Amino acid sequence: GQQVMQIPQYQHVQEGEDFTTYCNSSTTLSNIQWYKQRPGGHPVFLIQLVKSGEVKKQKRLTFQFGEAKKNSSLHITATQTTDVGTYFCAGPDYGGSQGNLIFGKGTKLSVKP
Amino acid sequence: DVKVTQSSRYLVKRTGEKVFLECVQDMDHENMFWYRQDPGLGLRLIYFSYDVKMKEKGDIPEGYSVSREKKERFSLILESASTNQTSMYLCASSFGTPPGEQFFGPGTRLTVL
Q1: CB-CB under 8 Å, B90 with A99
Q2: B43-95 pLDDT, tens digit each
């Protein structure tokens, strides 16, 4: 069945270092979404990418959608302790009914001050 | 401010008990979802609903049922709780198709003894 895979599962960085998480889909996606879950919190929507090759920035966060619309990445420049959390990507579930997303397992980021 | 609320933040139940988890959203969303989240396993979809009285099984529906009698409310029912259902349960909602941003509730941490 359709799968969304994320790597790495965990990433430990020193504050100030950069961080990247990668998301790969087994199928072409019409869009991809990214969420962040802080420790003890719930997932919160960050952004949606729709176009092939799209790049969007939110301050130190850069999101990319691959040309084939099967992969995506989230890059954080100069991490801060506030970036700690788990980052999930998600794409539409074409095997199920409308409205459903398939989430990757997430990348858990820890930042050492 | 959009809101998804869940009836309890923490819940402790005994094996064999019937458990009700309630979720309410105030955004007039068509879609509502129940996930469980366990370390290393990401977000796993239990059930979702795209309209009142409509429901569809997700990836792990066994041992669970749902009810959606009103648009704003989606209930998850554990007919006979078991220890392997100890988990964090997250409710989410979104507008219809194509799959839009999902808004998550704060979660219910359920412990079954």
Answers
A1: no
A2: 999 999 999 989 999 999 999 999 999 999 999 999 999 999 999 999 999 98
Residue A28 touches chain B, beta carbons under 8 Å: no
From residue B51, give the alpha-carbon distance in Å to each of A32, B29, B35. Answer: 24, 9, 17
C-alpha–C-alpha distance, residues B110 and A73, integer Å: 33
Question: Is residue A72 a contact partner of residue A89, using CB atoms and an 8 Å limit?
Answer: yes
Q: At residue B34, does pLDDT exceed 80?
A: yes
Mean pLDDT of chain B: 94
Q: Is the CB of A45 less than 8 angstroms away from the CB of B102? A: yes
User: For residue B57, with 0-12 CB atoms within 10 Å meaning exposed, 13-18 middle and 19 or more buried, which class applies?
Assistant: middle
- Give the pLDDT confidence of A59-97 residue by residue, as tens digits: 999 999 999 999 999 999 999 999 999 999 999 887 665
A43 touches chain B (CB under 8 A): yes
Q: Which of B74, B88, B102 to mutate to test the interface with A (most CBs of A within 10 A)?
A: B102
Q: Which residue has the tokens 């704060």?
A: B106
Q: In whole angstroms, give the CA distance from residue B84 to residue B111.
A: 9
A90 to chain B: which residues are within 8 Å by CB? 102
Q: Any CB–CB contact under 8 A between B60 and chain A?
A: no
Average pLDDT in chain A: 94
